[in-house]
Amino acid sequence: MRKLSRLARRLAPEFRPCWQTLSPKCSVIPNECGYIYGVRHVDDTTSTSKAALETQALKAAALQWASHDPDPATTARLHSWIAEEPLELADSFTGHLQFGTAGLRAAMGPGPNRMNRIVVRRAAAGVAAHLLALAQAELAQEQSAQAEMSRAEMDDAGTSSAGEPASQPPASQPPASQPTAYQPRAVVGFDARHNSEVFAQETAAIFTAAGIETFLLPAALPTPVLAYAVRAMDCEAGVMVTASHNPPADNGYKVYLGGRAVAPEARGVQIVAPHDSQIAAHIDAASNTAEMGDTSAIELAESGWTVVAHQLLESYEHTITAFTDRDAFPHRELRIVHTSLHGVGHETALAVLRGAGFTDIHAVAEQSAPDPFFPTVSFPNPEEPGAMDLAFALAEKVGADVVLANDPDADRVSVGVKDPSSGQWRQLHGDQVGALLGAHVVARGGHVGSTGIAGDEGTGAATPVFANSIVSSRLLARIAGEAGYEHVETLTGFKWISRVPGLSYGYEEALGYCVAPEVVRDKDGISAGLLVAEMAAGLKAVGRTLLDVLDDLALAHGLHASNQISIRVEDPAEIESMMARLRAQPPAGFDGSAIAQFTDLSVGTPQLPATDGVSYLSESGTRVIVRPSGTEPKLKCYLEVIVPVAGRDQLPAAQQEAERALAAVVRDVKASLGLEPL
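Structure tokens predicted for Phosphomannomutase (678 residues):
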């Protein structure tokens, strides 16, 4: 009962009156009267223990939620938890999912702290209200501008005006009934996880009922197709129901803005502040009901949205296929092994590769069809050990040249190559692929693809601009500098990378690559995989490999070696404790090299907004950045060492030194976090 008591304490009347973190309008008689959700609060502790009272209140809240749950499966699970699983019940009702720039992502199940139809309905209502508010604000600006012009004209005519401000609809008026400058448009997509399609359909129904012109993708499709649709269809918003590479039990809700809702450079990009907090406020308003779980005030249309024709997918595939430069890189003799890890990328990725002329493709049959259980992997993330084992086995069998592995929603790609020194297949690090693609984009003149999307004129810059996140390798900056390009460093996430003005190419080390931001302004594992194939085929034609190019880059710029430590925790408070320790007791150095520069990223810099994280740079050039994960209960530590290379014959020694140095830095970082003895 210890965990139940700890969780319930956050909600019990003695500590948090009226459970208002869950439902601020909940019909609870004040504690002074001795009731909570109709459960008698007996002051005589000998007759009813505090723990028993907390349990009764929790069960009462859960029963109220269950009475409003539209999903029989989660309703049944909730009744089971009430009867037999007090810890699950407590955790699912401790607070509520917080909507942020990454939207929502969590385990599916009943309660406000899980992904379910009630939570998604409220999220959809919040997004709809925000879109309408943006359209209303634009109308107010137009009215204000017109009023200002009228006053100026009257002044010129010698008359006066009372100067009344543009009329605003009363705050109490429902958003959908207020006049707007335009009718917002939104497109909704979904992957093949459990409940993704029903979450998407109900989102479309809620958007439609709110007066938003709504489009629903015709099937479970990759996230890059949704990101493409936001721009190609000139929509004010896009919603993608996906948990990407999370465990099978999870689902998520990702939001993009576009069209008239944002500036041109932000169209088709994931949200940033203040949109996240504004949507969260609308979600809170939709959740502010007299009874927990009640969504009766959220209207769902029975029809009225448009299911997008398959021509949209064909348009995406044609546009991505056209990225290839057949004049400069004509070679297509490349044997590829592809896996979609039971996700939705198989058909689209293969259609793009074949459309570009790559026909020698071998798919991992066991992982080609979408399967929300992800049965052949312990974790459906190509970064995880073992996730690419089946692909590597097939590559060895068929004598492949390269392995391409998309994550389940296909917005990321991992690359595998055969190491000639060991004869074994291995996965390239995300920073290595990021550098390779950067070098290839330079070889192509600094830009990839073009767009016919309306409103995108001038998004590219005369001088190419490369960008990557602060936790990614510094090698891309050196590649850009040598080519005479600009380079920008951003916070973690494509919501920041994609916003870089004039962006030509951007990436982050977690296998995310944006190779043609004028078409898909987000990470896209399908287009990135295509360019890797184009590069590898050209190299094969002259007897070289991707590993040879990495050696070239090491000779030119030093061997940049990266590693990452991910520390998963049960209690988020552990992450706060470790971050506080790093700030209060920063390490003296790494691998014997003293810290030359410490940056507390939470206070921001002239180049970067504030974020929770710390950065250390040693005198030898070793860099360590530590930050909490934005989507999982993890603390992430990003390490990079740079080893000079005097000549090609010194590469093996440099690689050994890099491995030694990284291992030493890993030990020092763990010691600084209190995970290993000093």
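The two ends are 36 Å apart (CA to CA).
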